Amino acid sequence: MKTKLFARYRYSLILLRELVITDFKLRYQDSLLGYLWALLRPLFLFAIIYVVFVYILKIGKGVEHWAVALLLGMMLWSFFTEITKQGLKAIVKNGGIIRKINFPKYIIVIATSLSALINLSINLIVIVIFAISNHVPFTWNMLWVFPIIVEIYFFALGLAFLLGTLNVKYRDVDYIWDIVTQGLFYGSAIMFPITEVVKHSKKMAELLLLNPICQAISDARHLAVNPRELPMMGNLTDNILLIVAPFVITLLIFVFGALYFRARSPYFAEDI
Known about the structure:
By secondary structure, the protein is mainly alpha-helical. Helices cover 77% and strands 0% of the residues.
């Protein structure tokens, strides 16, 4: 029994590895700059937003190391959206393979998420270099960014399972999610410090931080960049329910998405 179990998961891991390598290669194989786009795309977006929101609109003015905090937030946001958007399309995109080969379908979604994790790893190197050039003090608290990345990963993966399953039958999900992510982007305090919201309404800031992405980005900025001027939920309230709520939401989304995906996966071949 152990041998059969090992053989089953060994096959799944081999397939997962090949899908991750293939997915990562196919994204950049026909482009002139190749893998450099994994760095250039978020950096170009960062440069535009930095000029518009920091230099022109003066958002974040006076907050020490805000440029690094802004870049970190955008990289984490890109990580989240890449997992959800690629995961949403993964099952339909690989419909031909699903019809021909019998294998655990969740591997396809996980493969796209691991490809996003590779991109994030590359981008983190840029953030470290940028932080050094901006004289951000390095502390042990920076290591807490890695558990935060794990939180974002499971939240995004749960959504990818859910969205990918729904997209098999309802192709409008792709367009709806594009609209939702635009709203989430502006509602996750990415382009501005959460302190800007606190100035107007502490309750509104607490409400925004119930969103796991807003909470994760705010926590990462607090722990890795500027703990004095960039607070997280624990700095705004003593209410333990509010503090743990984003983590509970993350767990619920992941469990529900995974279970729904598992329940519908036997019908993917006929529904695609």
